[in-house]
Amino acid sequence: MARQCTLKGKPLRLDGPQLKPGDKAPDATLKKSLVDSIAISATHGKTRIFSVVPSLDTPVCALQTKRFNEEAAKLANVDFFTISADLPTAQARFCGAENINRERLQVLSDHLDTSFGRAYGTLIPDLRVECRAVFVVDKTGVIRHAEYVPEVADHPNYDAALACARQLA
């Protein structure tokens, strides 16, 4: 059976594997800006939270990003990333308007080739956006927490992800 999530109850197909704790975090390349890229493998060495959202320009995604931005200020030994398929210019505009500290919370774009979405199983191909998900990856590159939010319009379990990250930090 194909993997799926829902958006306001409407089923949407997901591409890629369903990762779980204990899996090695796949590599993928994301855009930091229109010209600069970063590979997930280049972010190793610290505990990382990858917060995946469909689009920063939607209410739940904005709140999720702001929440992790606030938490990043409290957890110095954890690196925080928000990933969406928004263009890097739209991400920069959002971060400026919402006072997101991009040194504490890196906002990365999967727009170019959706390699993250396909590797992490978060790509909704029919909409070319990511589903809502949160991954906590330890400093060796092993996933310790993986949550795929079944309904895209719902919030993730922030407390579970943050508790896992605190234990690893």
Keywords:
single chain, 169 residues, alpha+beta, Glutaredoxin, five-stranded mixed beta sheet, 4 helices, globular
Low-confidence stretches: none
Helix % is 10-25%
User: What's the number of extended β-strand segments?
Assistant: 11
Q: How much strand?
A: 25-35%
- Structural Rg: 14 Å
Reading off the top of the CATH hierarchy, the class is best stated as: Alpha Beta
CATH architecture: 3-Layer(aba) Sandwich
Model description:
- The chain is α+β, with helices and mostly antiparallel strands and 169 residues long.
- The protein has one domain: Glutaredoxin (3-Layer(aba) Sandwich).
- It is built from 4 helices and 11 strands.
- A 5-stranded mixed beta sheet has the order 7-6-5-10-11.
- Helix 1 (59-72) links the parallel strand 5 and strand 6 (78-84).
- The longest helix has 14 residues, at 59-72.
- The radius of gyration is 14 Å and the shape is globular.
Quick summary of this structure?
It is built from 4 helices and 11 strands, in the order βββββαβαβαββββα.
Topology readout:
Elements: E1 4-7, E2 10-13, E3 29-31, E4 37-39, E5 47-52, H1 59-72, E6 78-84, H2 88-97, E7 105-109, H3 115-120, E8 123-124, E9 129-130, E10 133-137, E11 143-148, H4 158-168
Parallel strand pairs: 5-6, 6-7
Antiparallel strand pairs: 1-2, 3-4, 5-10, 8-9, 10-11
